[in-house]
Amino acid sequence: MDEGPGSGKRGESLLFLTDEQLRKGIEAMFFAYKGFTSDPDRILEMRGYGRAHHRAIHFIHRSHGTTVNNLLAILGVTKQSLNRVLRSLIDDGLVESRVGSRDKRERHLYLTEAGLVLERELSDAQQARVRDAFRVAGPQAVSGFRTVLEAMMDPEMRRRYQRLTENGQ
Fold first, then answer.
1. pLDDT of the chain along its 169 residues, tens only?
2. What pTM value is reported for the model?
3. Which CATH number fits domain 20-137: 3.40.50.1110, 3.40.50.300, 1.10.10.10, 3.20.20.110?
4. Long-range contact pairs involving 118-124 (C-beta distance under 8 Å, separation at least 24)
């Protein structure tokens, strides 16, 4: 029997949560997400990029040499949408696309030196905000927060997330 995130086993004592408490939690996520994305949004806007560019840069960095198909699956966007984002990142010298050595139909993606600089700038901004929040919340809250986030993931996304984090990347 699955007792991982989303199984409900650990949270049975939380069934007393009211609709209003849940609504407040949802609203807190919306406002936190705005804060979480605000610093990178400013950095991206100066370059004419958006959040889709940020997400692509983040996951290309996390999975150096990832394929376009893998990135499509992680991001959950259309091929056409991803191709627009990748084309601009490649044209601007931030991402390099290489033909696969085993399968010539595959394209593997790598951040260039300039891409690594931008990725670091974006992640530094977000890490500072998350680090400050985690310091305020304390270690138990950090663990609980991750548990809540994992429990909200669809099963396939949770597996992808776990593979990414288990690989020590």
1. 344 554 445 555 666 788 898 999 999 999 999 999 999 999 999 999 999 999 999 999 999 999 999 999 999 899 999 999 999 999 999 999 998 778 778 899 999 999 999 999 999 999 999 999 999 999 999 989 999 999 999 998 888 888 888 865 4
2. 0.82
3. 1.10.10.10
4. 118/43, 118/47, 118/57, 118/94, 119/57, 119/58, 119/61, 121/43, 122/40, 122/43, 122/44, 122/54, 122/57, 122/58, 123/58, 123/61
Which H or E element spans position 113? helix 113-137
